[in-house]
Amino acid sequence: MSFLELTRMRRSVRDYRPDPVEAEKLNYILECGRYAPSACNFQPWVFVVVKDEEVRWRLGKGYPKPWFVKAPLVLAVCIDHSRAWVKRNGKSYAAVDAAVAMDHMTLAAAEQGIGTCWIGAFNEQSVREALELPENIEPIVLTPLGYAADEPTEKTRKPQEDVVRWEHF
Ligand SMILES: Cc1cc2nc3c(=O)[nH]c(=O)nc-3n(C[C@H](O)[C@H](O)[C@H](O)COP(=O)(O)O)c2cc1C
């Protein structure tokens, strides 16, 4: 499969089978996240893997959709603000770093036949409590990990001429 085919094949899975994700596949996915690039190579991320049903249920309070807790695993990509690269204008790049790592992992998961869904619309306080996050650790994005129980739908993307400019805006 080419990289283009992989990017077209990855999709948001919003229904999961309860079947467990093999340990080798999970490790492969996490390794692909660990090798992601980051600003100044500071790697300010922490990947929190949740298998425990009770913790997943508590996490579900922060994103109360039935399909979210159906998956056998949830992955929370968090950043450690004390390890972030901060630009001179004061902007932290830690959330960008987290997104890059997350993208590596969602694509790696798709390659392994494992479904994911980026989730940004969670309640931060509930997730903080469920994962017992210290103050300096911020959850950026969550994803369930598991085998899809739904079917792919057609991908809608803007045409290239709408999103690419040449030489100037
Ligand atoms: C940063 C980010 C946050 C997202 N948050 C959510 C979310 O909270 N809930 C959800 O169901 N999908 C969420 N998505 C998934 C998008 O809706 C989805 O990627 C988009 O509609 C394209 O569909 P596809 O992933 O199937 O290609 C998010 C995606 C990104 C990149």
Q: If you had to describe this structure to a student in words, what would you say it looks like?
A:
This protein is 37% helix and 14% strand. The chain is α+β, with helices and mostly antiparallel strands and 169 residues long. The chain has a single domain (3-163), classed as NADH Oxidase. The longest helix has 18 residues, at 94-111. The model has no long low-confidence stretch (mean pLDDT 97). Bound molecules: flavin mononucleotide. Flavin mononucleotide (FMN) is lined by residues 11-12, 117-121, 141, 155. Flavin mononucleotide binds at residues 11-12, 117-121, 141, 155.
Strand order of the largest sheet: 1-2-3
End-to-end separation in angstroms reads: 33 Å
Q: Regarding CATH, which class? A: Alpha Beta
Structural class: alpha+beta
Overall number of strands: 3
Any idea what the radius of gyration is?
17 Å
Q: Mean pLDDT, nearest integer?
A: 97
Order of helices and strands: HHEHHEHHEH
Question: Proportion of β residues?
Answer: 5-15%
Query: If you consult CATH, what is the topology?
Result: NADH Oxidase
Number of distinct helices: 7
Largest pleated sheet: 3 strands, antiparallel
The domain tally reads 1
Which CATH architecture would you pick? 3-Layer(aba) Sandwich
What is the subunit arrangement here? single chain
Which consecutive residue ranges, at least 5 long each, have pLDDT under 50?
Answer: none
Tell me which ligands are bound. flavin mononucleotide
CATH homologous group name: NADH Oxidase
Helix content range: 25-40%
What shape does the CA trace take? Answer: globular
